Amino acid sequence: MYSQKRPQNTKTIMTAIIECVPNISEGKNKTKIQKLLTAINNTPNTKLLHHTSDPDHNRTVITFIGKEESVFHAAYNLAKTATEILDLSQHHGIHPRFGVVDVIPFIPLRNITAKELVPLVHQFGDKISQLNIAPYFYEQAATNNQHKNLATLRKHLSETTIIKHNPQFGASCIAVRKPLIAFNINLKSQDLNIAKEIATAIRPSNGGLQEVKSLGLFLSSKNCTQISMNLTDYTITPPQQVFKAIEKLAQKHQIEILESELIGMIPSEIVDTNFAKNLHIKNFTTSQILNITTLTLN
User: What is the CATH number of domain 181-294?
Assistant: First the structure.
């Protein structure tokens, strides 16, 4: 199903390993979250690496890997399960979302290129459209250059009637992209205006940090504000640099950093000595370190 004729070279002789990091619009109901994880675990030739659920965002970020066809079967099984147990019209959370399976990025890790992955991702989009989920493509899978940036695509979706016509399942934004780091910093403050000001200041469009996407949010469960970020190229702007920049901006308002959160996995090459301690990352474990060279499906 998910295949194309690729040139026979060293890469294609070896097994392709693809990472998938779906973001699901459910972060509170543990029973439903477990059903979603089971849909992946029950798919052969895939491996669930990590998941993070947040009640304020009401969102779960899942990381799994699989062989070339298997990773798409698992993602489809996940989406199908989501349509059976989730309803976007009943969803409440502080994170922007347009679908029960809000984003589904695929990342080529080994023995497959982004160019080779794109047509497979388009086939996957056609498949989940049969579940009454509207597929939209961004980053390297974009079919419309104006939608290449996820933020631009979200703006487009907010201006369309897709949710009105499909209020239960909505849309899925599907991508082929490089690995990114989802990194949040919580502030010892309840002032949302300050959080939004800092989030705006660090964006590249405002002369801030390159390859950083950011939002200022309020976490009712912790009674504090958060700078929620995606570091889309950690080789250009690593989390250490982001932490220092936000710490400096917060100090101007006489605010301290409460803690940081790493959502999902982080590439091994970015983890230095005292990484978690220096960045005040709570609940960090070595299971969140992704080492591509030693990764296996066993």
Answer: 3.30.70.670
156 is catalytic: no
The answer, as to whether pTM is greater than 0.90, is: yes
| Angstrom distance (rounded) from CA 292 to CA 83 | 32
Question: In the predicted model, what is the mean pLDDT of residues 124-151?
Answer: 94
Q: From CA 51, how far away is CA 288, in angstroms rounded?
A: 9
Percent of the chain with pLDDT strictly greater than 70: 95
Q: Distance between CA atoms of 247 and 297, rounded to whole angstroms?
A: 39
Q: For residue 28, what are the CA distances in angstroms to 86, 213, 224?
A: 12, 25, 19
Asked if the model's pLDDT at residue 7 lies above 60, the reply is no
- Determine the Cα–Cα distance for residues 50 and 55; give it in Å rounded to an integer: 17
Q: What CATH topology corresponds to 10-176? A: Formiminotransferase-cyclodeaminase; Chain B, domain 1 (3.30.990)
Q: Which of 50, 91, 95, 165 is flagged as catalytic?
A: 95
**Domain residue ranges of the chain, discontinuous segments joined by +:** 10-176, 181-294
Residue 10 pLDDT class (50, 70, 90 cuts) = very low
